[in-house]
Amino acid sequence: MTALGTATRAGTVPRARTSTEPAPGRPGGPPGVRPGPRPDDRPAGRRLGLGRPVPAAGLVGVAVLVGVWVAGSASGLIDQRVLSAPWTVVTTAGDLIAQGDLQENLGVSLTRAALGLAWGVAAGVVLALASGLSRVGDALLDGPIQVKRAIPNLALLPLLILWFGIGEPMKVITIALGVFIPIYLHTHNGLRSIDSRYVELAETVRLSRPQFVRRVVLPGALPGFLLGLRFAVTGSLLSLVVVEQVNATAGIGYMMELARTYGQTEVIIVGLVVYGVLGFSADAAVRLLQRRALAWRRTLED
Amino acid sequence: MATHAGGLTAVVEVPADAPAVAVRGLVRAYGEDRVLDDLDLELGAGEFVAILGRSGSGKSTLLRALAGLDHGVAGTGEVRVPDQVSVVFQDSRLLPWARVLDNVVLGLGGARRAARDAGRAALAEVGLAGRELAWPNELSGGEQQRVSLARSLVRSPQLLLADEPFGALDALTRIRMHTLLRDLYARHRPAVLLVTHDVDEAIVLADRVVVLDRGRIAVERRIDLGGARDAADPRFAAIRTELLDALGVDRKDVTA
Ligand SMILES: Nc1ncnc2c1ncn2[C@@H]1O[C@H](COP(=O)(O)OP(=O)(O)OP(=O)(O)O)[C@@H](O)[C@H]1O
Ligand SMILES: [Mg+2]
What we know:
The complex is a heterodimer.
Chain A: H1 57-74, H2 86-99, H3 101-133, H4 135-150, H5 153-164, H6 168-192, H7 196-204, H8 209-244, H9 252-262, H10 265-293
Helix pairs in contact in A: 2-10, 3-4, 3-6, 3-8, 3-9, 5-6, 6-8, 8-10, 9-10
Chain B: E1 8-11, E2 21-30, E3 33-43, E4 48-53, H1 59-67, E5 74-80, E6 85-88, H2 100-104, H3 112-125, H4 141-153, E7 159-163, H5 171-188, E8 191-195, H6 199-205, E9 208-213, E10 216-222, H7 234-246, H8 251-255
The structure holds adenosine-5'-triphosphate and magnesium ion.
């Protein structure tokens, strides 16, 4: 077969090679049947890759979904009482912004999520380093963390409310508890799965232990950490939704709870959209970070 | 960092006029199998020795013992190596997350500025000037191996250990690498211990070829062909035949 690793050129039209087209350089095709391949018209090289990237790939599916919503509401197929029309939601959002409600509640929610995320990431990294870089740390920490991992955050909520009350500390702690698990797991795994060949290399160039950690272990564990961060960001928003249903006096979740008691479907949907946009942009941000930080990696995604 | 496996192997400081490498009574065993069995070997300062041997004859085991990479392998014997030992692996073993220059100067002591200048000079020597900021992934296999050579050279080694460094390269690149290695060797004059499967490679490069068999050195052959070595030279062919015999390769196998 032809070059497997050839990068698809921009402007190349990828298409599957049909059975009537002989592979270039392979005998068998009757000469003259097919016009000679122009350089830009040859079948796309990289067979096992994912092909040409779809522009703005992340948004396509969302756009389709919104399109269905718009069409359904416009044609009356979707009952307004069940699901408000997109334009109703947009005007409601406009009203909420004009009154300042949306910004205020969003600010509160974002602060909660960010604080929980920050504490959770810090705790996850510290614990992963402690147990990934020392056998004693591993013996002490890994077991309890695996147990914590098996307990859903939601199940801890009654205890956390008893301990920390229903104020902000409880909310931030709950979010942090959900965040630190994926950070810990993936960073720890990254630290432990450093290729032993690099350890050998480090010995032959006589790296000191701190140098070894800085030059080999940490960069080697970075992909794991960033993967954990993606899970953590999504997890922080999940926990946010949960804690905001518990006796909150501000926040997007509070706004939605309030709307429920007044039967304001459109406000609830505004809240949902805000949660969705938050999650989506947070994940996009981490993915951007991933691309930047792992520029050395050439993966299928490129 | 320990330069040697602990245990029963004695590590002794080298007197100034001593041979670069002295191995006496070296035994290495995996379980019951003695891979190296009472092996003796000496390398003079600046001597280039190639090791041939069948697969599994213990070449890598010997090299790893000299490099001090065989922690936990049972064994006895005496190994003397110089202070500055560099290793070139079969895979270039570049850290994929570090740029080329950072790989070359990895762990290099002294002032950062001086180290980087030395690294740049070493890269220029292997023909990779201008690629300092590339990622290892962006280089071809041959270029990666040249970076790994630069990483070894920048440490001014008194002993260069190489385990099939060109084994993964195509024939043409390999010939270029031979020329490069000979040049670098002529300029820096480290003692070199090169493990290879390729008899011609051994004859082209080395001052002396040793054949490892059943954990010992079975045959030693000095290569007295001078500087320019031509595989068409009848003396070259004679040495090749001799070494292939020592490796237990039938002449029929070669011509077949
Ligand atoms: N870590 C290990 N555990 C057990 N046995 C080993 C180990 N490493 C090597 N051996 C055995 O030691 C013997 C010598 O291995 P070594 O790698 O030194 O051979 P070699 O001469 O380098 O072979 P090759 O030319 O294939 O690289 C082999 O029989 C091998 O199976
Ligand atoms: Mg080997």
